[in-house]
Amino acid sequence: xxxxxxxxxxxxxxxxxxxxxxxxxxxxxxxxxxxxxxxxxxxxxxxxxxxxxxxxxxxxxxxxxxxxxxxxxxxxxxxxxxxxxxxxxxxxxxxxxxxxxxxxxxxxxxxxxxxxxxxxxxxxxxxxxxxxxxxxxxxxxxxxxxxxxxxxxxxxxxxxxxxxxxxxxxxxxxxxxxxxxxxxxxxxxxxxxxxxxxxxxxxxxxxxxxxxxxxxxxxxxxxxxxxxxxxxxxxxxxxxxxxxxxxxxxxxxxxxxxxxxxxxxxxxx
Length: 269
Prior knowledge:
Order of helices and strands: HHHEHEHEEHEHHEE
CATH superfamily: Vaccinia Virus protein VP39
GO biological process, one term: methylation
Pfam family, one: Methyltransf_25
Protein name: Class I SAM-dependent methyltransferase
Region (Disordered): 1-22, 249-269
Keywords: Methyltransferase, Transferase
């Protein structure tokens, strides 16, 4: 997942590999609902640039490891299951994946037959409260509008145990005026026009959710929020990290989070 916004769906508005979907297939997907669109894309998804890269997965796993140990793990919007391996490495207990698309879950069953997979909307989880110690999500937050975040993060808070953590990598936005920034703005504008004139809507935006918006929404759900630099991706000219790991912790009864160890670089707010 090398897109400049990790909360955007997977990797960005880029091309696909030789085994990936054609332009016509991508167009059909974009004119479908989110659920049906990913059902159509599922057999080819892992051959597209939308799949979260192994580099991001390894970096996330390595950043979370010092914050453990963890028992049960949950991947929200797990897609074809790329992130389930991160949880398997980190969690001693059951690993569960949730996704709205039945087609994506079919592929996840092939990739992670050891995981429990549930078809559900992440804003309405059919899971027992306080069941997990660690929840992750990779590249899916662009499918949610700011108004969806209270339900999304509220559900995550409910299914995490006190001291449990919700984590996701978040690359910084591209430099204003850069080619990448202009490309993402054009993509979001095209999607807004598409959704204004076509039904069903397909929510997929790269610039709707900023770090500030996410932090405020997580805090509003009851989490304490920290961000950690991910040193694998370096720093910008101004010294800020190119990518952060956002870690939201459900407080314990005493108001303290569990697992006080942090990645080597420490908080990078």
